Amino acid sequence: MTLLALAIAGTACRNPGGEAGKPGTPAVQSGPAAVSGASGISAVAVPSAQQPVPAPTPNPAEFNAPEPGTRPTDPGKHPAKESHAAAPASGPDEAQAGDVDPAFQATLARVALGDKDWSIRMAAVERLSLQSVLARIARSDVDPDIRKLAVSRMTNQNDLAKVATNDGDWSVRNSATTRLTDQPALARIAVADEDPDIRKLAVSLLKDQSALARVARGDKDWTVRMAAVDKLTDAGILAQIALKDQDADIRKRAVGRLSELATQP
User: Fold this and answer.
1) 139 touches 162 (CB < 8 A)
2) Which stretches of the chain score pLDDT less than 70?
3) Phi and psi dihedrals of 42, rounded to 5?
4) Which residue from 148, 171, 194, 249 has the fewest beta carbons nearer than 10 Å?
């Protein structure tokens, strides 16, 4: 056979039915089916397309995990103020077992006075019962919630009076005033505090009739004067208020108090 005939025969073997897509062209098999070559050796089945690898299921906790070496919360920031007041602080008489240990109290005092993180200072103050240290914290901590917590554990009237008259935050003064029983201190607060609600609170705790009379006749806020009139028992002072107060409701209340006193046995 000539070389030309061999070439024609070889072409026919490679494409016996003509060009792909024309009649007579065998369908090309795809997919994983095995095919046999001319030599009789079976070819290994190969997937037509690579199967996608499923992505791992994310763990939600990983997104909230802090970076290594960092705190879960930003120190010095309050997550929410209401978290400070979620549970009432226990008083010094309700200390947990072991809290009265001197060494433990000394450690708590160092933490409460020196830690930079407000939440750690708060945790230490919650267990602290040393009155001198609580007074120092109530006067000097930068966080008003920690000062309020310290006040809630204080019993010394002089220290409470200092906080009630000098703290720059009204809520701390309010907390300290609530714990006061010292009448001269309450009288000073009832007359001089800049916040009418705190003055009213002090009036509600006052028993000194002369201090109440001073507030009832002189306070610039009518609600504070009204609170003082409600506690007055001096008929002469009530008569003056009934005649002279600029507010009709207070004059009416003074008359009502005079009637109540007149009917008492």
Assistant:
1) yes
2) 1-99
3) -75, 135
4) 194
